[in-house]
Amino acid sequence: SISASSPVSGTLPLKGSPQTLNNSLVIGGATGSLSPLDPNQASTHYINDTGVRFSAIRMAANSQEDVSLSYMIWYQSGTAGAHDIANVTTLVGTTSVPALVQPDGKTYISLFNPAVVIPKGRSVDISVQGDLKVSGANRTVEFDLADNTDDEGTGGMLYGFGVGFVPSGNTAQSGNHSAFITDDGTPEGASGYPFFAGSIMTISGGAVITIGR
Q1: Rounded to an integer, what distance in angstroms lies between the CA atom of residue 15 and that of residue 46?
Q2: Could you report the per-residue pLDDT of 43-89, keeping only the tens digit for each?
Q3: Rounded to an integer, what distance in angstroms lies between the CA atom of residue 45 and that of residue 48?
């Protein structure tokens, strides 16, 4: 039966359009590895150094579909503050976008408009860099990805679903040495915290050399 506030004409039953459920569709995905641009070791740079590369990963799109990248969220876990680092920028291939510091002074977000497209089966290097200010002397800088949604806006271009991002190598259980953190230290393990741990960089104020005679 039908209860309605106005006359209804036609015959029952009413039929909707047919829907097909698919449990075999394979959507795209993305894998992460260490970029050759990453320092991959503890390092020291000096106050007033510019264009210092802090961290870099390589993102590869799986073979099912192109993948779009809409934003990157970096977390600076070193002892340096936002006032110690200037001109922080995310580079994705040849695309350079400012990374805007958030009120906590530790989180930096780069928005890509339009989104960066990684063709299926291809990869792109993603890095973060900046300038070191005098106030940062004797402090440390470490740019991490807190979890695997921080390089997000990752979406499949063919099917329109969000895609997963997992490491394909360069994994460890802990540490601050340019590694993807998993619970067992392997690419098959569950993601840990942070998802990607960058290497520690120390800001040096310089050295004084005394020459006597």
Answers
A1: 72
A2: 999 999 999 999 999 999 988 889 989 999 999 999 999 999 999 99
A3: 9
Task: Determine the Cα–Cα distance for residues 56 and 73; give it in Å rounded to an integer.
Answer: 13
Residue 160 and residue 22: Cα distance in Å, rounded? Answer: 15
Q: 166: closest CA among 178, 153, 184, 182?
A: 182
Q: For the chain, first and last CA: distance in Å?
A: 108
Cα dist. 170→4, 35, 62, 194 in Å?
A: 63, 10, 18, 14
Distance CA(127)–CA(38), nearest Å, equals 8
Specify the amino acid at residue 182.
T
Q: What is the pTM of this model?
A: 0.82
**How far apart are alpha carbons 132 and 80 in whole angstroms?**
10
CB neighbour class for 47 (10 Å; exposed up to 12, middle 13-18, buried from 19):
middle
C-alpha 29: how far from its chain's center? 14
pLDDT digits (tens, 9 = 90+) for 171-192: 999 988 899 999 999 999 999 9
Structure tokens at 178: 């340019």
